[in-house]
Amino acid sequence: MKWSEISIHTTQEAVEPVSNILHEAGASGVVIEDPDDLTRSWDTTLGEVYQLSPDDYPNEGVILKAYLPVNSFLGETVDEIKEAINNLLVYDIDLGHNTVSLSEVNEEEWATAWKKYYKPVKVSEHITITPTWEEYEKVAENELVIELDPGMAFGTGTHPTTVLCIQALDKYIRQGDSVLDVGTGSGVLSIASAKLGASEVLALDLDEVAVNSAKLNVKLNKVQDHIQVKQNNLLEHVEEKPDLIVANILAEVIVRMTDDAYETLKPGGTIITSGIIKGKKELVKKSLIESGFVIAETIEMEDWISIIAKKVE
Questions:
Q1: What is d(CA 275, CA 252) in angstroms, rounded to the nearest whole number?
Q2: Alpha-carbon distance 223 to 36, whole Å?
Q3: Which long-range contacts (C-beta less than 8 Å, at least 24 apart) are formed by 18-21?
């Protein structure tokens, strides 16, 4: 089979929504070429696995690459991708260069091109994320390993927005908690919650493809007894009363659900939000406070913000 590599030159701010657009368009994995990775301070307790070459990265902005099958619908699919990306301007998302290019690759190149970007990464005190094809042995007795196959869904769980969420989950989850993961994507936050001691996790996503991908990753990590994955729009018609809600989604979407989140959480419950650029921090904080939450902590990583808040009653 022939594959077409679609390459999008955009910004850090647009990585998550553009990745989601590519995922919904049928891409079976997204490569993120972010020059910040060249200067990021990585945890090296796992060994020197971050052998990154500057030649693989743009001088500015971020390049996202995905692979689509070459068929009669390819042109229509690319046009839909472009339109969906341009629609992000409605949310005041900076798209940067916003250039899209296509190139053809063969089956063998497609199967291996993106694997060089993914290595085991320790993302929190207890959680390490590793791609399924890497041979990895735990370096500490209390280390928890999440295996992900980027071919199942976009991302590998190592983007700053996801890392911030996992670090917050590592800190705030108590043994036996119930968790609600809104916009689960690949399911990585639900899997992390279960491995950190949550007794039951409800993972929600509006996208059917994401739901199926999350189900596969949940089974891969053998936590299906603790996680239920369902298709759902944010918190609509959710009857569960969790101890903790985690939402790694756009700031504009978070502010639409803070009232529902407050009503849904148990008294004393925690909400972890991420996917927030610095310019939208006050917007999200204001919405959380107006809904009745008390801000517990704000964490920053590069240009991204995670806000943790409590329902105090």
A1: 10
A2: 33
A3: 18/64, 18/85, 18/88, 19/64, 19/154, 19/155, 20/154, 20/185, 20/207, 21/81, 21/84, 21/85
Helix (H) or strand (E) holding 218: helix 208-220
pTM for the whole thing? 0.71
15-52 pLDDT tens trace: 888 988 887 787 766 888 877 665 555 555 544 444 55
Q: Residue 273 CB: number of other CB atoms within 10 A?
A: 32
Sheet holding 121-122, edge to edge: 121-122, 127-131, 144-148
Which residue, chain included where needed, has tokens 């009503």? 263
In order of their start, the domains of the chain are 3-117 (3.30.70.120), 121-310 (3.40.50.150)
> CB-based burial of residue 30 (10 Å sphere; 0-12 exposed, 13-18 middle, 19+ buried)?
buried
Shortest CA distance to 127 belongs to which of 46, 56, 10, 73? 46
List, run by run, the mean pLDDT of 10-residue segments along the chain (313 residues): 85 87 78 69 48 63 86 84 91 91 74 66 88 82 84 58 92 97 91 96 88 89 96 92 94 93 96 91 96 96 91 85
Q: Find out whether 142 and 106 touch, Cβ atoms under 8 Å.
A: no
At 139-174, the pLDDT tens digits run 888 899 998 875 544 445 677 888 899 999 999 999
Q: What's the N-to-C CA distance of the chain in angstroms?
A: 58
Name the β-bridge partners of 7. Answer: 65, 101
pLDDT given for residue 241 in this prediction: 94
H or E segment to which residue 216 belongs: helix 208-220
Question: Could you give the percent of the chain with pLDDT greater than 90?
Answer: 47
Which residues in 122-152 are b (16+ Cβ under 10 Å) and which e?
bbbebbbbbbeeeebeeeeeeebbbbbbbbb
Cα–Cα distance for residue pair 99/77, rounded to 1 Å: 16
- Burial class for 49, CB neighbours closer than 10 Å (0-12, 13-18, 19+): middle
